[in-house]
């Protein structure tokens, strides 16, 4: 019978060309180490698939670590509300929470995850839309492995799972279902020409929302028109710019707008106003997320359980809930931004 030789800390030290003490310091995160040295050690850890023995786990089990949430920015309500849920649950569980921002830069994300590993965070929760490609899958798998080796857990929140039984825990929401429901709401009100505002091909959140929109059109036997799918980022400025450009082409060839989130809807409403178009008398509009400014605008939208997402992410990370994908429900909140079309 052949036995697999266990990779030891000595193997890692040899591969990285440093002392065992240095490897130990990098893994423990309890002593300053040059970034270049730390990177060499972490590369060797990954290449050898080194998993520290019970020592690392015992260290992290000895005291509760912080729960870290990593987001693009805290100035977008979507992220801020999920962070709020994380903070509340972490506090309930007697943990501190750390909020880290990447500005959407994968390089910054990587260094944050490394730092959190060294700081012995108990869990790292990564939030938000991503382009799911091979590079992304590889990066997330490496994060999950390297965090697990330090006794920490990775949770993907509002991001697609890696693969069946992959190393990361996942909590998501029914993105496509919400988009289907809100598009069906417009269709039931008689709208047939519905502009989708905020297409971002390849981005997980955008792809699911567009898929829901197209599904609803198909279910109502309304042909999808690519000319009604307008590209744009998930921001107020992008919504304003994209709709202004569209309206400058001439009178709208659509009666309703599905904005990919409430911020885009807010920008679009400003563009409509500047073109003398009133909501909902001249144009119907719906959003997604149910964050301010949806209430103030009287915007019909899809409610996202932001705090529940954050709370569930923490519970999963601490092993309080079932492991495996957890998809939370979404529902429409009907306000005053959709006008039923009179069918003549
Ligand atoms: N709503 C859902 N995903 C979002 C994102 N990535 N940015 C802003 N708002 C969002």
The assigned structural class equals: alpha/beta
> Can you tell me the CATH topology of the domain at 175-307?
Rossmann fold
Hetero groups: adenine
Number of helices: 13
Average residue-wise pLDDT: 90
Described by the principal axes of the CA atoms, the overall outline is: elongated
Secondary-structure element series = HHHHEHEHEHEEHEHEHEHEHEHEE
The CATH superfamily of the domain at 175-307 is identified as: Response regulator
Q: Strand order of the main beta sheet, please?
A: 2-1-3-4-5-11
Largest sheet: 6 strands, parallel
> Would you identify the regions where 5 or more consecutive residues have pLDDT less than 50?
none
What would CATH call the architecture of the domain at 175-307?
3-Layer(aba) Sandwich
Beta-strand fraction estimate: 5-15%
Distance between the termini: 81 Å
For the record, the CATH class of the domain at 175-307 is: Alpha Beta
- Indicate the radius of gyration in whole angstroms: 23 Å
Protein name: LacI family DNA-binding transcriptional regulator
GO molecular function: DNA binding
Pfam family, one: Peripla_BP_3
Domain HTH lacI-type: 7-61
């Amino acid at each position: 019978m052949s036995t697999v030789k266990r990779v030891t800390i000595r193997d890692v030290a040899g591969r990285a060309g440093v002392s065992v003490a240095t490897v130990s310091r990098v893994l423990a995160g309890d002593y300053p180490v040059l970034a270049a040295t730390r990177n060499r050690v972490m590369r060797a850890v990954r290449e050898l698939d080194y998993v520290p023995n019970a020592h690392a786990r015992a260290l992290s089990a000895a005291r509760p670590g912080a729960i870290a949430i990593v987001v693009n920015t805290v100035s977008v309500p979507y992220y801020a509300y999920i962070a709020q849920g994380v903070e509340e649950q972490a506090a309930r569980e007697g943990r501190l929470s750390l909020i880290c921002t990447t500005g959407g830069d994968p390089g910054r994300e990587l260094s944050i995850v490394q730092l959190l590993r060294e700081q012995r965070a108990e869990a790292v929760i990564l939030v938000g839309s991503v382009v799911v490609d091979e590079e992304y899958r590889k990066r997330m798998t490496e994060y999950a492995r390297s965090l697990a080796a330090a006794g920490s857990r990775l949770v993907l929140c509002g991001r697609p799972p890696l693969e069946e039984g992959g190393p990361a825990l996942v909590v998501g929401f029914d993105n496509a279902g919400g988009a289907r429901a809100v598009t069906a709401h417009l269709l039931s009100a008689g709208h047939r020409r519905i502009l989708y505002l905020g297409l971002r091909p390849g981005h997980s959140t955008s792809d699911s929302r567009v898929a829901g929109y197209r599904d609803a059109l198909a279910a109502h036997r309304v042909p999808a028109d690519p000319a009604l799918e307008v590209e744009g980022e998930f921001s107020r400025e992008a919504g304003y710019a994209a709709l202004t450009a569209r309206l400058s082409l001439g009178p709208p060839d659509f009666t309703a707008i599905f904005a990919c989130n409430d911020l885009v809807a807010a920008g679009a409403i400003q563009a409509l106003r500047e073109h003398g178009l009133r909501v909902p008398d001249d144009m119907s509009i719906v959003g997604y997320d149910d964050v301010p400014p949806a209430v103030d605008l009287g915007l019909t939208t899809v409610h996202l359980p932001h705090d529940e997402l954050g709370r569930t992410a923490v519970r999963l990370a601490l092993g309080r809930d079932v492991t495996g994908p957890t998809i939370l429900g979404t529902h429409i909140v009907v306000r005053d931004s959709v006008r039923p079309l009179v069918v003549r």
